[in-house]
Amino acid sequence: MDSSFLDLSYFQVLLAASLVVVNGMLSLYLKLGMERSLFVSAIRTVLQLLLIGFVLQWVFTNKQWYLSLLIIVVMTGVAGLTAASRSQFHYPGMRLHSIVSIWASAWLVTGFAVFGILRLTPWYLPQYLIPLLGMVLGNSLNGVCLALERLSVELSSHKNELESQLALGATRWEAAHPHLVTSIRTGMMTMINAMMVVGLVSLPGMMTGQLLAGVNPLDAVKYQIVLMFLIASTTMFGTISVVLLGYRQMFNSSHQFIAPLASTKKHRSND
What we know:
- By secondary structure, the chain is an all-alpha fold.
- The protein folds into two domains: 9-62, no CATH class; 64-263, no CATH class.
- The chain is built from nine helices and two strands; from the N terminus they run αααβααααααβ.
- Strands 1-2 form a two-stranded antiparallel sheet.
């Protein structure tokens, strides 16, 4: 297997950037109003990736456990805050629930991968730990975000129905259970869809990167299978955790609906 790596020049990167310029021109021509979002997102992509590139180059060179730990703590915190901030509705403690759910699920599953599957020595090898956790966080973030959004919409739109059921003697679990199930299923749906078509419709990022670097396809497949299972488990744990934490926040031990949801009145763009 040819292990040569094709090094990209900055001119080739600029050629790829020209595609975004074309998209912006199409937006202007069709009056879509997306050109500013495209420009800002493109600039942020370049700056953020360049910054993390320099940071990771330094961390990979030094290979100190506290540097790896600092990086993954920051990544986890940003993921938790991002998942909570994208919801149309908010309830007290939502950000904390998001951070705790993503942190617990991602670190538990990644720890299992590091110590049980890959058996890294030492455990903090940054070229393995940081990309692995990053891919797990990025995908589980979407699941937690969708679950939070669905939970907020479900309970806010069925508030009167919930209170009627509680008044008629239903327990908080009986009243909320259908909405909790819907929220968890919504959070998992994207991941399940991705697993159904992986290898047939799409080649995931990790596998694609290894193939471009000259890795044997079967070796790349083994890594991708492991990663898909890690992401699926993390997404399931994260969505269940955040939905149950939200449920506990919005219903007290006397089976009363106590946490009204506040609309942020924000409209998310279709990035």
